[in-house]
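PROTOCOL LOG
Step 1. Enter all chains and additional molecules of the complex.
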Amino acid sequence: MFGHSRWRSPGRRWPFVRRELSQLQVVIAAPEPGCDSYPRLASSEAYHLTITEPVAILKADEVWGALRGLETFSQLVHEDDYGSFLVNESDIYDFPRFAHRGILLDTSRHYLPLKSILTNLDAMAFNKFNVLHWHIVDDQSFPYQSIYFPELSNKGAYSYNHIYTPTDVRLVIEYARLRGIRVIPEFDTPGHTQSWGKGQKDLLTPCYNGEQPSGSFGPVNPILNSTYDFMTKFFKEISSVFPDAYIHLGGDEVSFDCWKSNPDVKEFMKEQGFGIDYAKLESYYIQKILDIVSSYNKGYMVWQEVFDNKAQLKPDTVVEVWMANNYAHELSSVTKAGFTAILAAPWYLDYISYGQDWKKYYSVEPLNFPGSEKQKKLLIGGEACLWGEFVDATNLTPRLWPRASAVGERLWSSSNVTDLQDAYKRLSNHRCRMLRRGIAAEPLFVGYCAHEARGW
Amino acid sequence: MFGHSRWRSPGRRWPFVRRELSQLQVVIAAPEPGCDSYPRLASSEAYHLTITEPVAILKADEVWGALRGLETFSQLVHEDDYGSFLVNESDIYDFPRFAHRGILLDTSRHYLPLKSILTNLDAMAFNKFNVLHWHIVDDQSFPYQSIYFPELSNKGAYSYNHIYTPTDVRLVIEYARLRGIRVIPEFDTPGHTQSWGKGQKDLLTPCYNGEQPSGSFGPVNPILNSTYDFMTKFFKEISSVFPDAYIHLGGDEVSFDCWKSNPDVKEFMKEQGFGIDYAKLESYYIQKILDIVSSYNKGYMVWQEVFDNKAQLKPDTVVEVWMANNYAHELSSVTKAGFTAILAAPWYLDYISYGQDWKKYYSVEPLNFPGSEKQKKLLIGGEACLWGEFVDATNLTPRLWPRASAVGERLWSSSNVTDLQDAYKRLSNHRCRMLRRGIAAEPLFVGYCAHEARGW
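Step 2. Run joint prediction.
Step 3. Record the structure below.
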């Protein structure tokens, strides 16, 4: 994916003949989409780049493919020792292997200033990622400033400074759009919602200590009508604020302890005939949320537990597989049941270790799970996840890049591009390129970038 | 070490009475050292800080103690919710537990721009570190621009841009001095010297493949007079460029394979009666280097193998213990033999892992090794080492801080300051303080700093 060496046309011997490239013509075939439209899962990112003098031509069906081709063109240009800019004659037909290539950023465990998010969007474009999975709120804080429910961030954010206003959110979405990147927000319920409870009365389940409320709260309370009234209004807002066709609804790691302690919940379980199977209660809740979101004509993504716990899902639900333990089996089950899947499990980049862990991420073959051709087609991509427990603006960029670049290439390039030594060379060059472009990508190993300046 | 809560005088109830502090008087007892002198191992860093209105008094024997006291004073000042700056009445007598509290930076595996080094010196001062162990050259590159031997960096640096000129080195030393920080350069020989060989003919041992030279080179060639002529001149320069009383001479990880392959070296071994004990050859070499450096009235530090391999050492040699395996035993042996020791083994901060590894560094008790009181006194401190294989300017600061702060407190504060919960609170505050001061210290765990700004 990165670097020019692979694109050198065999049979031509550079630099015996140097010619001038005077122009790059960009031709977009599709009359639609217009300038105000957004990238979609079904968008074409294919492009055909022909570099010959004096005019290079970049052809794409859609503007999104043209963006990818321009990125490639910019990576093909290199500077020689005399300061001239060169590009080899090339003929490239390129397109992504997977349609969904995402980066998850978590703005709840730590607040990320807008600048960090925008810089990361730049880096994503340099690495041909096309989805920002914005894990915007969680237990720890609620930085999203809601229009209908301003108390959620007033009380649930770390402070009045640690919020994303509607203007901020619009800026992120527009900055992403201009780079061909979808923004899929995640509003994870019913678990991971402690911060929601601060600004929204009666939303969370009161936990009990024997006969008495303990004073602490559990997941969203699934037995109250008020919960669904709130969610209806809340997701109406979210559906209109975020233009993408998908919303991520979370659904992971729901602890049943608090529900089990609450006498009203127990009574409700009995009425519904759920017995003591709290996964049924979770599914009951999730089903209602899915219905709400569907009614706004949005598709949804969910974490794998929603599938595991047998919530009834719309056929086009996207299930995100995150548990590292036996994820191939999970991919097999999800796709066998006919659901679209996204793979995140092997790419939790918040986990760090000494050395070159990019090789591990690079070596994953997403389609290496048991299943039919039809099943394989249901795996539409993957995500590199940088959860925020130990990450904020101080270390986000070097922790994410170039480690995520390895995931980016895996998701874009052909399955047979697997040579680690070759990848190392191209990644090292690409890392220096990112540095030149203002992305503080950390080194892969010992060495240097030619452009690095001495002193200040 | 960090934060104000511990210093609040018992018996006084703040903020019932608010008074004005109009002045901080600094009194330095010693007429010497004058302004142009450098911090030394024997420098006093003790200070006595009395904060009462209207005049606070900071007393110290030497300017170095006054610097530490000013740092403490700056950390005691805090801002209330209304923007007033407050400081509690306090009476603090403070001094370091260990005299040598170092940070090792490696500028060979990756070049660090001057700015990174200076920023790190600021951070060191904020954390009361007093030694920069500058691992300036190694196998990978030779960024030190020598006055006598300019070819060393001309050919051994990554490029002409990846060097430290004499002016750069003077700037680092002066910037450090103003913060009470000694700069101890390391010129590691006879191993770790591949980059030296590029600019200095015949310095390295030619390795053999059977009867023939293989074309590759091993450690410094210990059998040639020219080697010692070079080293005599080279260390004369180093002794004059670096004002500190100590030079670190390395001596670690010397591979004997190349020496063993070389027929001239084998012949020399026979002549000297070393048999096949190449550790004796290593000691022979080291002994000569020590004699050279001693002749310039410099003391020296060495890595533990120099002691392990039984080189004859001057009694005041400082032995740095770095091997993680059984370092307590090594500390015991080194001090039993009467040598001064520095502990680095448990504080290799280049090793990273997921989570709060600062706790591990914080929990080390350096004196927890078998030995007499006299032996314990020979352990004069420790160093946090950030080796550069995977570190450059992009990630140095967040990788080093606040993890090194844990080591800093361990080396400064009393041995009974061990409470992790208490340390967590103070470290978190201190990390926010570092951020405000321009040090991109990474987060310890989830949370936020009050001053963090929204948006850009």
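Step 4. Note key features.
The longest strand of chain A covers residues 212-220.
The CA atoms of residues 130 and 181 of chain A lie 4 Å apart.
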